[in-house]
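Journal club prep — side note

Before the paper discussion, L.F. wants everyone to see what a predicted structure for a comparable chain looks like in token form. Sequence:
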Amino acid sequence: MTVQVRHLQSCSALLLIGAVLTLFYCSTTFAAHNITMARSSNLDTPRELQDVDEATRQGASGNWDQLWKEGIKRGTRWDTDGSSPALVNLLKQGQLPKGKALVPGCGRGYDAIAFAAFGYHAVGMDLSDTAVKEAQAVATERNDELSGTLEFKVGNFFEHDEKYDVIWDLTFLCAINPAAREAWAQQMKALLTPQGVLVTYIFPIVEKEGGPPFAMSMDLVAGLLQPIGFKASKLEMLPDDLSIGKVQVCLRALRCLGADNRTVQCCILTYQV
């Protein structure tokens, strides 16, 4: 196993909160589910765009690095202290193309490590230098598990220009400012290989205002991706055993925001272009 750490130009935001798994592919294949969802009408809600700096509007808030510097203990806030059960399940079942995988907003790198454990060349990217150092430490602890290669980068997802066979969005979308959502979709398309797969873990599916985490829905995600050529190939609502760890972390955050816990749901959506 090889672990590398690279520093790119700063930024890219992620809050690890979410649970709808969506798979999007970069090729013309048939959609396993008839998902015809209109473009979301509230991509730029004025309340969510007020009082934020330009970096935040572009999806690269400096607040994340400050939070990491202040200290995020394992298993607290958005940290899940382990790889996502939903991702591990997909990897065990061989449902994703082999090759190179990207985890934007990787935090401590648990899911990038999961990809490397299944033989991928995995790249974990985060805006926070502190988070990347933490990820490197976790990777060192789990070195014996890894059959692939692992690379961590400090950088801006929106300025990244490599190509990937799989991109795993573990609630990266719900953490960025709504003004950056269309750029998120365009960048996902630009980073995928012609047969690449985008897997999105959609959460929180909940009635709430503000964020992060911002409220998500299947309609919202599909409304961003389908107009630019992505086709849904799989939609899966997650059972408790594949989502409970993430949901519990999310509920702790959502309770602070006054959300109704009973409305929280999880699912996975897979897309192709």
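L.F.'s comment for the group: The chain has ten helices and nine strands. Keep this in mind when we get to the figures.
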